[in-house]
Amino acid sequence: MTERPAQRTPNRQLAALIAEAGFSNAGLARRVDQLGLEHGLDLRYDKTSVTRWLRGQQPRGTTPALIAEVFTRRLGRRLTAQDLGLDACAPVYAGLEFAATPEEAVDIVSGLWRKDSGSHAELRKIAFTPAGLVVPSRDWLIGRPDDKVARIEAPARVPAQGRPGAPRFPAPADPARRRTPVERGPGVRVSAGDLAALRSVGELFRSLDDRYGGGHARQALVRYLEHELEPMLRGSYGEQTGRRLFGAAADLTRLAGWTSFDIAAHGLAQRYFVQALRLAQAAGDRAYGSYVLATMSRQAVYLGHGREAVQLARVAQQGVGGSAPPVVQTLLHACEARGHAVLAEVRACTAALIRAERTMETARPGDEVPHWARFFDEAQLADEFGHCHRDLQQYRAAAQHAERSLQLRAAGYARSRLFTRVVLATARLGLGELDAACQLGAEAAAQAADMRSVRAVEYVRDFERKLEPYRDAAPVRSYRDKVAALG
Question: Where are the residues of the annotated region Disordered (predicted)?
Answer without folding.
Answer: 156-186
